[in-house]
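User: Teach me something about this protein's shape.
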Amino acid sequence: TSDGNKFSYQIENSSYHRAPGLRLTEPVANPRVGVTHTLASIYAASSKSIGDRSTPLDIAISAPGDLVYRAGQWGKGYGKEGKKEINGKSAFLVGGEFRPYAGAEATGRYHMAITEGGELLEYIEVIKVAVGDGPNPQIVEVTSRWDVNLIINGKVDPSLFRVVSR
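Assistant: First, the predicted structure itself:
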C-alpha cells in the first residue's frame, strides 16, 4: 500500500528471508540514494509477497520486464473470438494459447474482454495442471477468472491509499 509518501509491503514467504511475513515500510522518494519509486517499482517490490499474482493487475501497473514475461505467456494462435456484453459494456473477446513462459508448450488458453476504448473487463486463464507424484499424475483443468473494471486514466478513490504498517 502507498499514500504517495511511503509504501509498505510484506517480505515474501520463502526460505531465503529470515523474517518472512514481516511488513516493511519505505519512503517513495529517497533523496539519499537519488531514487523516487514509480508505481511499477513499488508493485515490483511488493509483488513477490503476493501468493497468487493477478494478471489484470500486472497488465495495469507492472514493470516493463514483467509485461514482457506476461506477453510471453500468450502464445501463438491468438485472435478475436467475438463480442460480449459485460455490465452493460460491449467488449471484444480476444484469446489464444496460454503457456507457463515464453517458448514453452501451450498448457491452456487465455481470454480477455476489452472495450473499444481499451478498458479490460474480464481476464480468464484455463490451464491443465499435473497433480500428484510418480509416472502417472492426474491432469486437471484449472480456470482462473478475474472480473475487472480497468479504465485507462480512470478516477481513483483516494480512501484506498492508506499505508498499512503491520
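Now, about its shape. The chain has a mean pLDDT of 85. The longest strand covers residues 138-150. If you'd like, I can walk through any region in more detail.
User: That's plenty for now, thanks!
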